[in-house]
Write a structure and sequence with these properties.
The protein is an alpha/beta fold. The chain folds into three domains: 201 residues, 3-Layer(aba) Sandwich (Rossmann fold); 73 residues, no CATH class; 153 residues, DNAb Helicase, Chain A, CATH 1.10.860. 54% of the residues lie in helices and 11% in strands. The protein is built from 19 helices and 13 strands. The strands form four sheets. It has a five-stranded mixed beta sheet, sandwiched between helices. It has a four-stranded parallel beta sheet with strand order 4-3-5-6, sandwiched between helices. Helix 1 crosses helix 2, helix 12 runs antiparallel to helix 18 and helix 13 runs antiparallel to helix 14.
């Protein structure tokens, strides 16, 4: 029905639904290797977002396999855990991931198949796959213990897609931009699968980059966009860091899109809405009294807290000069922020659940907070704390909410404005991400110390590039 329409746009070009069906048929045929059906064998695959990723996922499904998307940015040990836990029989990968994935496959005596080889296979007859069969395994973020695999059937996935397509009124004329990772439901189901179910087009970025997202939004072809709260905060930060000329150009392009709305009253509503939102994002007071313009920014525009924003910066002084205590203090600040401002969970619950906490008592408290929120999303700070005390978390609560902790991050205090709390969350999560990246680098450094191979050095390069990028924006 949508054969000649555009299905996917990525950095390599534009691909139709016919091309997607052909590519996925080739992948499926190669995976089958003469068999009639994979019979729910797990196939783990690792590649950057784009047309090849979708072709691999569809090919696994069409061969009767269970797709296991591997998270980008994972350490070797994290990948090994997922591969072993799912009992994957095959690893599929692009050229960038081949050095590591081929090594992991060889160590387990399982198939290692480069995507380029799969796409070169002539298509053949494929099995009929019923909707009650298992389709995909995604992993939780590991809130209470190690990440757990969550299995969904084709029927589960179809039900999710149908409900979302109906609620959001998707049509074949829509075009959505993907800037989310493809190992969580949000990117896989809400964005890619809904678009392709509807016959719409999905423009896929290899990774989130704020300026590139702005260019796509203002380019006039995107009709839908969705992301997590942290991405919206970063988009605002990029807007604030833009030159007046760039902001004016973007505003003009946004206004051009509004002019395309046929109903004049709706057109005026959107024009007013956009201008108000942009004014709020850029013109709101940002600097402390006497501060020079731009003095609150470092390394390209990531705005930090100042006293004029209602919350002073995070004072990262290691308690008793002990780095391990600093690590716990960071975790306590994160929990104090959520406890005093539980409304944030309506915006960042998934991100909060995915943060790796080293302290087991704090990890258990985080789990209890999420359970309470799931049952009563509108709990205020006082009610949430009372219920947690009833759940026998009094001692750890007292530590998290102590003056020693709140002195390190005033944005976590009970009396700060919601916007200061939101920006505190952004600041805190960036620190956690830098810590996780540092751990990944140390993991690869240990491998390099044991084996100075091309494969290990190839693994190190994107990690170092990511570290350089973060060092320049924080």
């Amino acid at each position: 029905m949508h054969s000649s329409r555009t299905a996917v746009v990525d950095t390599q070009g534009t691909f139709t639904y016919n091309e997607l069906l052909d590519a996925s048929s080739r992948v499926a045929t190669a995976l089958l290797a003469g068999r009639q059906d994979l019979q729910e064998e797990r196939v783990a695959f690792f590649m950057k977002p784009g047309f090849p990723w979708v072709a691999a996922q569809w090919g696994i499904w069409r061969a009767g396999g269970v797709a296991v998307p591997l998270p980008a940015g994972s350490t070797r040990s994290e990948l090994e855990y997922i591969i072993d836990d799912t009992g994957a029989s095959t690893l599929v990968f692009d050229a960038a991931a081949e050095p590591l994935l081929a090594l992991l496959a060889a160590a387990r005596s399982i198939r290692a198949l480069p995507l380029g080889w799969l796409l070169a296979c002539p298509p053949a007859e494929l099995p009929d796959v019923t909707s009650d069969r298992r389709a995909m395994i995604l992993y939780t973020s590991g809130t209470t213990s190690r990440p757990k695999g969550v299995v969904t059937t084709h029927a589960n996935i179809a039900a999710q897609i149908v409900s979302l397509v109906e609620a959001w009124e998707w049509s074949a004329d829509d075009r959505i931009l993907l800037c989310l990772p493809l190992h969580h439901l949000h990117g896989i189901i809400n964005v890619v699968s809904c678009a392709l179910w509807s016959g719409a087009a999905c423009a896929m970025l290899p990774r989130f980059e704020a300026n590139s997202v702005w260019e796509h939004i203002c380019g006039g072809r995107i009709t839908l966009f969705m992301a997590v709260p942290t991405i919206y905060v970063k988009l605002i930060a990029a807007w604030e860091a833009a030159t007046p000329e760039r902001r004016a150009a973007l505003e003009q392009r946004l206004d051009q899109q509004v002019r395309r709305i046929a109903d004049r009253s709706v057109q005026e509503h959107y024009r007013s809405f956009f201008r108000e939102r942009l004014a709020e994002a850029f013109n709101a007071p940002r600097r402390a009294s006497g501060a020079k313009p731009g003095s609150e920014r470092r390394g390209g525009g990531r705005r930090r807290f100042d006293r004029g924003s209602g919350a002073p910066p995070w004072r990262e002084v290691a308690p008793a000069a002990d780095p391990s205590l600093l690590l716990r203090r960071r975790e306590e600040v994160m929990l104090a922020l959520i406890l005093n401002h539980p409304f944030l969970l309506n915006e960042v619950a998934e991100e909060f659940a995915g943060i790796e906490l080293a302290s087991r008592d704090l990890d258990r408290l985080r789990d209890a907070i999420l359970k309470r929120h799931a049952l009563q999303p509108d709990l205020d700070a006082g009610a949430l704390k009372r219920q947690l005390r009833e759940d026998k978390f009094a001692k750890v609560l007292d530590g998290v909410l102590s003056a020693e902790v709140l002195n390190h991050a005033a944005f976590a205090r009970l009396d700060v404005e919601p916007e200061a709390a939101r920006r505190g969350w952004m600041d805190a999560t960036e620190r956690f991400e830098k810590r996780r990246l540092g751990a990944h680098i140390k993991d690869v450094e240990r491998d390099l110390a044991r084996d100075m191979s091309v494969e290990n050095w190839t693994r190190m390069q994107p990690l170092l590039a990511n570290k350089d990028e973060k060092d320049g924006t924080v």
